[in-house]
Amino acid sequence: MMLLSQSVFAQGAGDNGSFYLVATLVIVGALILVSAVLTLSQSLISAEATKVGLEEPKTLGFSLSSLTGGSAPSYTKGQSFVNLTKGHDILLSGEATKEIADANITRFAVRPPNFRGLEPIPKVVVEVGDEVKAGDVIFHGKKDDTVKYVSPVSGEVVEVRRGDKRAITEVIILADKEIKYKQFDPPSITESSREDIVAFLTESGGWTMLNQRPYDVLPEVDATPKNIFISTFDTAPLAPDNNLVVEGKGELFQKGLDTLARLTEGKVYLGLDGNGESAPSSVFTEASGVEKVYFAGKHPSGNVGVQIHHIAPIKAGDKVWTLGVQEVITLGELMYKGIYNAQRIIAVAGSQVAKPHYAKTYIGANIGELLKDQLGEEKVRIIAGDVLSGRQTDLDGFMDVHADQLTVIEEGDYYEMFGWLLPIKPRPTISKTFPNFLYPKLKFDGDTNMHGEKRAFVVTGQYEKVLPMNLYPQHLLKAVMTGDFEQMEGLGIYELSEEDLALCEFVCTSKMPLQSILRDGLDMMREQG
After folding, report:
1. Which residue range forms the structural domain that includes residue 258?
2. Domains in the chain: how many in total?
3. By the 8 A CB rule, do 379 and 394 touch?
4. What is the structure's pLDDT at 415?
């Protein structure tokens, strides 16, 4: 009003007065428009918050601790602690309840595409109609048959599916009601040589539980890892709680750790969750023979790649191995009881799942059977994994060998008029256009709509704000796109896997397929040796 009154008085000054009046009216109009947009946005967010029981918005104030990240929780007891200040948690509805139900699954599959480095057409040693036990060999490489790929269940081989160029995509097994196991004779963990342990794991299927970085490939049999890393928690949206998964399996988990310790000349590192008010499971905190490091922070603090970066970064020529918690348990049971028990606890989650829950099944479970009576009539996206880095699939598909999560969300096949200009519908985002920060605990249904088309790959600095690694991902990705091998190596491509850039892809204004670009770069580097 003061500006307007000054402008009115200035009218007598001629053209200058008219200019000031018009400028003032434009400014006032813009302020009114911005105020209306913010009011509408906050009303929509408030309505969503009311649905989930949130009453009061978060204050706009901040404290010094929010900038520094706070100190280590008391339960770390002085052990190594890393506080990550970068990242972003995507809060989605449909989290699995803390109950584990036995899944009645009849079909399972071993998928050659899960094993990067294996020929597209491996040597299949079974035929349709053959009976197999859990642990029996299904296929192996044509050039090198050292590593055996085995059946996760017992039953009848009913189908061998092929894809493009006759590549084998799945070997499907109709499972017995009661699983029968092939009995192996495991070597002593403490008394046997490393060579004997390696030979046993390659023959029994245990070797396929391992993953080698860089490149995320099956480890070379004659290679010794510099270190081995295991993340005991997952910060991805709707990820399973490993404290629940490992309950009652402490002895097997420890046997797996003891086995891994014999396979490296370095150390076995456990990444522990430092975000909670209470300590993680005692299975993790009391594990012996390993180095424990606590991590706190938003996603992707649970990614093993981020943890490796802050413990012992991968350099040119380095090879490290990684495993998930359930893979360690499988190794432990193989070395302890001599059976290949591929049992998995999978979080079946997402806004489009009728009753989100944990399902007890085996590696390679059929997705349609996992989701039986769980879907409505809406168009949905089924994802083997989490919404950021999982693989799109369908009801006739099968779970991947390392997948411990199945997510179903709404298919975002709709257009939103002026969605880029007006915050019409609340959504998970880091944009300050939407006042999500007022309700930090609000959970969204989420969908697959990208809210925009692919654009120019411009430098925005968005990636560095959410990636807690001392890297420049945008420069690295541009080096990949131009085929600059020296730049790729110098900018740290060896340290990254697709899941590490998944959050960057989520926040990307340019809508670039960052994970796909990174995989192209990793494949190029691997081909170059």
Report:
1. 104-337
2. 2
3. no
4. 80
Nearest residue to 503 via CA among 215, 231, 306: 306
- Return the pLDDT at 29: 78
Burial class (CB in 10 A: 0-12, 13-18, 19+), 61: exposed
Q: Which residue in this structure is represented by tokens 């997948």?
A: 403
What's the pLDDT at 436? 73
Coil, strand or helix at 39: helix
Domain boundary among 314, 337, 360: 337
Amino acid letter, 367: I
Q: What is the pLDDT of residue 431?
A: 78
Q: Is 272 in the same domain as 124? A: yes
Q: Across the beta sheet with 155-162, what order do the strands follow?
A: 107-110, 168-175, 155-162, 131-132
- pLDDT value of position 339: 98
Residue ranges of the chain with per-residue pLDDT less than 50: 1-13, 55-56, 58-69
Q: Which residues contact 43 (CB under 8 A, 6 or more apart)?
A: none
CA angle at 262 for the pair 259 and 263, rounded to the nearest 5°: 95
| Distance separating alpha carbons of residues 232 and 269, to the nearest angstrom | 10
* Token code pair at residue 411: 């298919």
Residue 407 is assigned to a structural domain of this protein: no
pTM score of the predicted model: 0.87
Together in a domain, 303 and 160: yes
Dihedral sign from CA coordinates of 209, 252, 246, 321: negative
Place of tokens 């003891």: 258
- The Cα-based distances of 459 to 222, 497, 505, 517 in angstroms read 42, 21, 14, 16
DSSP 3-state of 519? helix
In 123-176 the beta strands, taken as DSSP E runs, fall at 123-124, 131-132, 137-140, 148-150, 155-162, 168-175
pLDDT for position 42:
58
**Which whole-number Å values give the CA distances from 141 to 46, 146, 147, 331, 472, in the listed order?**
57, 8, 7, 21, 37
Strand partners, 347: 358, 405
Q: What is the pLDDT of residue 417?
A: 75
CA distance 57 to 9: 42
CB 138 within 8 A of CB 182: no
Strand stretches in 350-403, DSSP E = 357-362, 380-384, 391-393
Query: Quick one: pLDDT at residue 402?
Result: 96
Per DSSP bridges, beta strands 343-349 and 80-83 are unpaired
